[in-house]
Amino acid sequence: MLKKLSIDELEVGMYVKDIILKDTNHKVKNQGSVNSPRTIELLKKQGVVHVVIECDPNQTEDSDKIEQQTADNAPTEEEPQTSLNEELAHSCKLYDQATENVRELFLNSSIGKPLSPDSMAILADEITASILRNEHAITILTRIRQKSNYQWEHAINCAVLICGFALYLGLKTNTVKEMTLGALLHDIGSAKVPKAILTKNDALTANEMSVVKKHVLWGVELAKREGFTSPIIVDMLVNHHERVDGSGYPRGIANNKLTKLSRITAIVDVYDAMTGEKNYRKGQLPQAVLRHLLKNKEKFDADLVQQFIKYLGIHPVGSLVKLSNEKLAIVMEGNRIEPLKPKIKVIYNLKFNRYTKPSDHDLTEEEFGIVSAELASDYQINLNKVLKDIVN
Q1: By mean pLDDT, which of 126-135, 147-156, 166-175, 323-332 is the weakest?
Q2: Which residues sit opposite 28 in a β-bridge?
Q3: 391 Cβ partners below 8 Å, 6+ apart?
Q4: Which class is domain 2-71?
Q5: SS3 label, residue 209
Q6: In angstroms, what CA-CA distances link 328 with 73, 304, 332?
């Protein structure tokens, strides 16, 4: 006999036949016994709102499957969970160090000096470890954008987002670390693009764009010269500008010739590039970029885009939002069960046009809510300074 329960009614010892995700009535096969409270927490984290259980206690085949299918999303024993505030303090230092390391990487690449493979691998490991301890902390920092630092910011942000997304998808930690390293390196060839092109205040000409496109092959040459030859890293460097309809570059390959890894990299690369500050335009709101990815389903893997949106949330952490009580807040922790009700930190009073003492709120417990997403630059708010003041 089958019975449908809410996720909050699920108990250790029950046998799950199907799971049902938020905002859909479709069942997803995910069978097995619930052997620990951790399994229930992981299912909640993945957006499961209802389960279908088998009431017959004697049905125990595949009893370990549900544990196995969710285990890859769990923190490893070596990386115990930390609070957001604790990890945010560490993440600010890590992001600053990453900025220095990646800036040096690009500088050395531009003048032909040897790179430092070991330091990049260590950085990838540290980013992965931080996200395993707390998935929100360092991800918040990817929303702090400075156009003067775009090249290395983009590399670091892609590394953070690819790492978090890959862990969300359940990929193994060692694979995720290598993907994170690949993301740090994916645009390294752009170090050889003339600075006049990279810093141009207008749209590029066709000739300038042809030079920019060479960064892919330049990056592969640099990476191989320095010993970054793993298939994962090479795939990310070669194919991050390819599109599923064959309209990308440098080879114009399409569809089943593109790996899942290259499709993930393409989505994250475009998301961070479009939300970033450029010399010739302001960064776009995450919501606008996510709509762009959804609209262009012929270019980007539609299933992965949907998963990426579920991972990020409607209002990604680090975003500035306007509240119904005429205040501005930063999104601090996402909520995959109720995406419109994340945890926030109020920082600004719109009635009096001034900063307020930061205060934390869980929107599942408040009468006010989010009205809209906002650009910090529209209010002359320096998110970098605000977040560092919060940490300090």
Answers
A1: 147-156
A2: 19
A3: 85, 88, 89, 92
A4: alpha beta
A5: helix
A6: 32, 31, 13
Q: Look at the chain and count its residues.
A: 392
Tell me if 342 sits within 8 A of 363, measured CB to CB: yes
Which amino acid is located at 255 in the chain? Answer: N
Please list, in sequence order, all residues whose beta carbon lies within 8 angstroms of the beta carbon of residue 24, skipping any fewer than 6 positions away: none
Q: What is the DSSP string of 107-168?
A: HHHHTT----HHHHHHHHHHHHHHHHH-TTHHHHGGG---GGGHHHHHHHHHHHHHHHHHHH
Give the pLDDT band (50/70/90) at residue 57: very low
Ramachandran region, residue 86 (left: φ > 0; alpha: ψ -120 to 50; beta: rest)? alpha
With 80 as the cut, is the pLDDT of residue 74 above it? Answer: no
CA separation for the pair 392, 390 (Å, rounded): 6
Fill in the amino acid letter for 167: L
- Contact indicator for 115, 109 with CB cutoff of 8 Å: yes
10-30: b or e for each residue (b if 16 or more CB lie within 10 Å)?
Answer: beeebbbbbbbbeeeeeeeeb
Residues of each domain in the chain carrying CATH 1.10.3210.10? 84-312
Confidence of residue 16 (pLDDT cuts 50, 70, 90): confident
Residue 50 burial (CB count, 10 A): 18
How many C-beta atoms surround the C-beta of residue 92 within 10 A? 21
Reported pTM: 0.81
CATH class of the domain comprising 84-312: mainly alpha
Rounded Cα distance, 34 and 40, in Å: 7
- Give tens-digit pLDDT for 352-370: 999 999 999 999 999 999 9
Distance, in Å, from the CA atom of 301 to the CA atom of 244, rounded to the nearest integer, reads: 7
